[in-house]
Design a protein that fits this description.
By secondary structure, the chain is of the alpha+beta class. The chain folds into 2 domains: 5-106, Roll (Diaminopimelate Epimerase, Chain A, domain 1); 111-212, Roll (Diaminopimelate Epimerase, Chain A, domain 1), CATH 3.10.310. Helices cover 19% and strands 38% of the residues. Strands 1, 2, 3, 4, 5, 6, 7, 8, 9, 10, 11, 12, 13 and 14 form a 14-stranded mixed sheet that branches. A hairpin with a 4-residue loop joins strand 4 and strand 5 (67-68). The longest helix is centred in the first third of the chain and has 11 residues, at 33-43. It comes from Streptomyces pyxinicus. Pfam families: PhzC-PhzF.
């Protein structure tokens, strides 16, 4: 069996929650994309990272069904694990920094996969959403192809303070019905709103974001080693 670490990324203030991430530190043991894809599917995490050069931070990211040029929570988790100044992804070079309990990455919104950012009137409405069965119109009031098309549901908890409640339904058909924490979606929402955000996603994960000059956006969160 290929060795891998399991991290929790974007943990809550008490260290709980966060989105699980698999990291294969020795990517050379599975050099071919087909083998990496098979392992990512077997592990079943929302993303699995293969490290191809730990000193330069060269990484390769897979969901259970597809290879990704960039993803937020894999980059934050791997930045924490490798403690390097940058990560090299197919989308571009991701700046990284560790700041006390938070690990930060700097990326661009255009690197993130497209998502439907749907605003709701209250955090309670977001909390009440249920994952719709495929092929059925849900209580969300939108067709299933949109619901299952990478929906990121959000509402203000405190607009003045930039506090957001969010949930993400990736709709990839790979067994991940809801993402506990989604850095790429937070990147897109920050770009849309043009302001720093403090996002509570899933059951209690926390993501912090901040726009930077020249179209860059920082995303930060807590990371812990699970096993």
């Amino acid at each position: 069996m290929t060795d891998y670490d399991v991290l929790r990324v974007f943990c809550g203030p008490d260290g709980g929650y966060g989105n699980e991430l698999g990291v294969v530190r020795e990517g050379s043991v599975l050099p071919e994309p087909a083998g990496r894809q098979r392992l990512a599917a077997e592990l079943g995490f929302s993303e699995t990272v293969f490290v191809d050069d730990p000193e330069r931070g060269v990484i390769d990211i897979y969901t259970p069904a597809a290879r990704l040029p960039f993803a937020g929570h894999p980059c934050v988790g791997t930045a924490w694990l490798l403690d390097v100044p940058e990560l090299v992804t197919p989308a571009g070079v991701v700046g990284t920094r560790l700041d006390g309990e938070f690990t930060w990455i700097e990326a661009r919104a255009q690197w993130a996969p497209p998502r439907t950012l749907r605003q709701y009137a209250s955090a309670a409405e977001v909390d009440a959403l249920k994952v719709p069965p495929p092929g059925e119109r849900s209580e969300m009031g939108v067709p299933p192809d949109e619901v299952w098309g990478r929906l990121y549901a959000w509402a203000w908890q405190d607009e003045a303070a930039g506090r957001v409640r969010a949930r993400a339904f990736p709709g990839r058909g790979d067994g991940i019905d809801e993402d506990e924490a989604t850095g790429a979606a937070a990147l897109l929402l920050t770009d849309l709103l043009g302001r720093a955000l403090n996002i509570t996603q899933g059951r209690g994960s926390q993501l912090l974001t901040a726009p930077q000059p020249h179209g860059w956006i920082e995303i930060g969160g807590r990371v812990s080693l699970e096993r």
